[in-house]
Specification:
The structure holds two protein chains of two kinds. Chain A is an all-alpha fold. Chain B has a two-stranded antiparallel sheet with strand order 1-2. In chain B, strand 1 and strand 2 form a beta hairpin. Classes of the chains: A mainly alpha, B mainly alpha. Chains A and B meet through helix 1, helix 2, helix 3, helix 6 and helix 7 of A and helix 3, helix 4, helix 7, helix 12 and helix 13 of B. The structure holds fe (ii) ion (FE2) (3 copies). The site of one fe (ii) ion has 4 residues of chain B, from helix 7.
């Protein structure tokens, strides 16, 4: 049973990284300036690295011979278990930055805590990912502040992004049987145990950005059960097209 | 990369102090590096600004055809390699803009020249990337041609350009190997994959040869560049080096090159090749290539869509500076 839970847990984390890196990759060559193009690509590359490790590990746990690409490119929408937050589109740079900030503000304390996971593989990944998440959070937080406290237009845009994306933040703190069974074995962490850290980061940054934290509202859910927004299918279509068209091929 | 000398109106001679000119040329002849604060003839400065900025623009526009495949890369490993490569090209753009800035132009001015259509970039990036093998073929052929062009530029007389080239060349040869590796993997694969590779090479071979610029008999502007040791080999010499290096690699790969005139001259040891379609080349330079207008539209869109972001960053920095000086 544990293996099934651990497989699911790794797949969720892998899907978060894979889908968010796919979104970030859409910026490549199109960002507002070269430095930012390079920075967004950096984050995308870190996340692809996490996805590869996590899919590979999940495949080993599953033991059916599926490798990282089989898991990433040969599953349909309903089998993806990523957070709804990470699949939200790049409506503008403000959406991309706010999405990254809300996610990284969670992932930094998450990986820090996961460094003491009883699962050696996850603890090892956490040690590396924690350093990368530090940069992701710093970079996105700096932009949230700059945009919030920049011009009227940038303030409005980042505020719109915050107000829209906020309803997807509740999902990060969900704790279902998969998570709780692994928490009991000290393999996973209870996401509520780092909620205060996320709150603290978010509150501090929003104050510096002259942004008001949205009042607690309805939180969307479903990603962890494969119930997604309409966007996911459009992310998977180009992403999986070569693997699907030429299933015999190695690349 | 991409120093096709595309819009070189003959550099006007201007009136320079004879003594200074002679001293300058003597330094060049001694292979000394010219640094930004050193005296240099106006024409030398102008040639360099044009060449370095064309090179920088090429790096940046070159991100687009490869970026076309980022979301469709067929494996996570290949996606990571592609993203990292495109990121390197962006970095090359940055170093080169900085090198040009040491000559007294700003990056903003140079970018404006690109977006207004005044400045050129390498013709190769006006061709589309139509199948996944194009990503490999770009690495192998386009980065490969760039390396041939750039290795001599590592010894360019202008210090900042030469140093930028040394760093950039290392990365370009890495790109070339990765591109070749991608093609090798596909050639080991299914018949469909092999067809993709052949198709990509058929389309990109001639455009890659055109990257070295017009044939020597039609290229009027290299005399000064040669004398100033900005350029050390002619277009045709560099093209020949590229063909000689690449034909054997194509054989190993197991593909044909789309040139019926290609044959080894046993005496010289060089691969003789046919003439690129120079009408197509000049037509592309003029703006009529398959993707010229699309590339500019994409660059302009990114620039305009990003205007509010850059303005916000400036406004924020100004507010912070004001707070600091008030404190
Ligand atoms: Fe280049
Ligand atoms: Fe480059
Ligand atoms: Fe390159």
């Amino acid at each position: 049973m544990t293996d099934t839970a651990l497989f699911t847990y790794c797949m969720r984390l892998a899907d978060d990284s894979a889908i968010l890196s796919q979104r970030l990759g859409e910026w490549c060559g199109h960002a507002s300036h070269l430095e930012e193009d390079i920075a967004l690509t950096n984050i995308a590359l870190d996340l692809i690295g996490h996805a590869r490790e996590l899919y590979t590990y999940a495949g080993q746990i599953e033991g059916k011979g599926r490798d990282e690409d089989a898991l990433c490119f040969h599953r349909v929408e309903r089998e993806f278990n990523n957070l709804l937050l990470v699949e939200q589109p790049n409506d503008d740079f403000a959406y991309a930055i706010m999405r990254q900030f809300l996610f990284s503000a969670f992932m930094l304390p998450f990986w820090e805590a996961m460094m003491s996971s009883k699962d050696e593989q996850l603890a090892g990944l956490a040690a590396k990912a924690e350093k990368e998440a530090t940069y992701h959070l710093r970079h996105s937080a700096e932009w949230v502040i700059r945009l919030g406290d920049g011009t009227e237009e940038s303030h409005n845009r980042i505020n719109n992004a915050l107000e829209f994306l906020w309803m997807y933040t509740g999902e990060m703190f969900e704790c279902d049987e998969v998570v709780s069974s692994l928490v009991a074995e000290e393999v996973a962490i209870d996401p509520m145990s780092i909620k205060h850290l996320w709150d603290e980061t978010v509150n501090t940054v929003l104050v510096r950005a002259n942004l008001e934290r949205p009042t607690e509202s309805w939180m969307q859910t479903g990603g962890r059960k494969g119930e997604h927004s309409e966007h996911l299918g459009h992310i998977l279509s180009p992403m999986q097209y070569l693997q699907r068209s030429f299933p015999q091929a190695q690349w | 990369m991409y120093t096709q000398a595309l819009n070189n109106p003959a550099v006007e001679a201007g009136v320079e102090d004879e003594e200074k000119l002679a001293a300058f040329q003597a330094r060049i002849d001694r292979e000394e590096k010219i640094e930004p604060n050193d005296w240099m003839p106006a024409a030398y400065r102008k040639t360099l600004v044009r060449q370095i900025s064309q090179h920088a623009h090429s790096e940046v526009v070159g991100m687009l055809p490869e970026g076309n495949w980022v979301t469709r890369a067929p494996s996570l490993k290949r996606k990571a390699i592609l993203l990292a490569k495109i990121q390197d090209e962006g970095g090359h753009g940055l170093y080169l803009y900085s090198a040009a800035e040491t000559l007294g132009v700003s990056r903003e001015e140079l970018v404006d020249q690109l977006l207004s259509g005044k400045a050129k970039y390498s013709s190769i990036f006006n061709y589309p990337t139509l199948n996944w093998a194009d990503v490999g073929a770009v690495g192998w052929l386009v980065d490969g041609a760039a390396i041939m062009n750039q290795i001599p530029l590592c010894r360019c007389s202008f210090g900042p350009y030469s140093r930028a080239m040394i760093r950039i060349c290392k990365e370009e040869s890495f790109h070339q190997r990765q591109g070749y590796d991608l093609l090798v993997a596909m050639m080991k694969g299914t018949a469909e994959q092999q067809e993709m590779v052949q198709d990509a090479v058929n389309r990109l071979w001639w455009p890659a040869l055109m990257m070295f610029g017009p044939s020597d008999k039609d290229s009027k502007h290299s005399a000064d560049s040669m004398k100033w040791k900005i350029k050390r080999f002619t277009n045709d010499e560099l093209r020949q080096k590229f063909v000689d290096a690449t034909v054997p690699q194509a054989k190993v790969l197991g593909i044909s090159l789309p040139d019926p005139d290609l044959k080894l001259n046993e005496e010289t040891g060089h691969w003789e090749h046919g003439e690129p379609d120079w009408d197509e080349f000049y037509n592309t330079i003029k703006g009529n290539g398959i993707c010229n207008k699309q590339r500019m539209k994409d660059r302009i869109k990114a620039h305009e869509d990003g205007a509010w972001v850059r303005e916000a960053a400036q406004a924020y920095a100004a507010k912070q500076a004001a707070k600091k000086s008030a404190a």
